[in-house]
Amino acid sequence: xxxxxxxxxxxxxxxxxLLKRASTVELDWDVRQKSRFDATDSSSRQLGIFLPRGTVxxxxxxxxxxxxxxxxxxxxxxxxxxxxxxxxHGTPFDLIRAAYHxxxxxxPIELKPDHLKIEPDHVLADMLRAMHLIVNEVTEPFEPENGxxxxxxxxxxxxxxxxxxxxxxxxxxxxxxxTPPAPHVHGPGCNHDHDHGH
Length: 198
Fold this sequence. Notes:
Belongs to the UreE family. It holds the Pfam family UreE_N. Involved in urease metallocenter assembly. Binds nickel. Probably functions as a nickel donor during metallocenter assembly. This is Urease accessory protein UreE. It is found in: Cytoplasm. This protein is an alpha+beta fold. Among the domains are: about 70 residues, Sandwich (HSP40/DNAj peptide-binding domain); about 60 residues, Alpha-Beta Plaits (2-Layer Sandwich), CATH 3.30.70.790. The chain is built from four helices and ten strands, in the order βαβαβββββαββαβ. The strands form two sheets. The protein has a six-stranded mixed sheet. Strands 8-9-7-10 form a four-stranded antiparallel sheet. A hairpin with a 4-residue loop joins β5 and β6. The chain is elongated.
């Protein structure tokens, strides 16, 4: 059995030629959120995975075996509920409401611009249908969001090294000036578009 104890998120830093040669392993969400499990890769090798506790494998991540071989992780298609808004009786905003209610129940959710995905649950499906959402069971890969405070910078399967400087300067007044800037008032002449569709 090939022992694995290292994971490289999205294969970051690895040459594309190495990734093309890597074998693959297809795992569903239930397995990918475990730190210890066995699997079989595309080369029929038995894998014994022992990752640091709390590690979640995402589609596109790369496992590194003790012998140096690389195994690319694919998110296996699995049964999920795909939730979309009803164009006749609702709006896309209904998806935000649904995500709020599901989040209050600590349900793992995959967020997309035009739909949500959750694991099958008939009680939640009934709740969502009562909110005039369309709920269909499909077989697709499932990549739910991590919590906002999750470690590893893995949000929804992607790592983005964003650093934002929030020291915005809205005027040329020196920082030591004792006079605060005038508040910005929205109204006629503020040069902002205020088309609220009334």
